[in-house]
Amino acid sequence: MKEKVDVLVATYNGEKYLREQLDSIIKQTYKNIRILISDDCSKDRTQEILQEYEKKDDRIKIYNQKNQGRLVARDEAISKTTADIIYMLDSDDVIDPTLLECGYWTLTTNPTASWAYCNCVNFDKKEFLYKPEFDSEQEKKENLVIGSSFIVKKDLLEVGGYNVVDQDVHEDWHLWLRLLEKGKYPVKMNFYGFWY
Fold first, then answer.
1. Which of 107, 119, 161, 168 allows an S-S link to 75, with CB 3.0 to 4.6 Å?
2. Residues 6 or more apart from 110 whose CB is under 8 A from it?
């Protein structure tokens, strides 16, 4: 059966949170997923951890590349996807056990939406709750939507993926603006499903 959601993880020296993150993905209530991990030539124990998890779960696929930055790693992982919905995640993030199920059904029941996002809990050095309300005019001035979002693959490809942008630009914000420019819009899942 074709996977309904491909989870993309771009990582570089992500060993600190990688186990916790991979456990949060593997233990999802929604099982019809593939986990594509693009390692940007990590120098720490990332590869060792990834190989351990790849042996545990056959849904995990690892792709290694020479160090070119996370945007190249993300676009490389996108090129390997087969699902219609992609969920983007950095290697130091953790997700609620129901997030993939909620994201899949949110986009399935809102077929004209291009991406879906949820509220966020910030942890580690700075702890706070982030509950953004989307407003397309405000989004042009500041990035309201978290980067770890569900994206309809055909819409993502229509705007050229993440595309390499200047390092001073927030790549997720750049992506949301390009989607908005094409008349695409998001839908919000009103719960705390993501730990940044």
1. 161
2. 116, 187
Does the pLDDT value for residue 133 go beyond 60?
A: yes
Express each pLDDT in 90-108 by its tens digit: 878 899 999 999 999 999 9
**Structural tokens at position 88:** 């983007």
* 3-class DSSP state of 111: coil
b/e code 86-120 from CB counts within 10 Å (16+ = b): bbbbbbbbbbbeebbbbbbebbeeeeebbbbbbbb
CB count within 10 Å of CB 80 equals 13
Question: How far apart (Å, rounded) are the C-alpha atoms in residues 67 and 59?
Answer: 24
CA dist 159 and 176 (Å) reads: 10
**Among positive and negative, which fits the CA dihedral 78, 81, 84, 90?**
negative
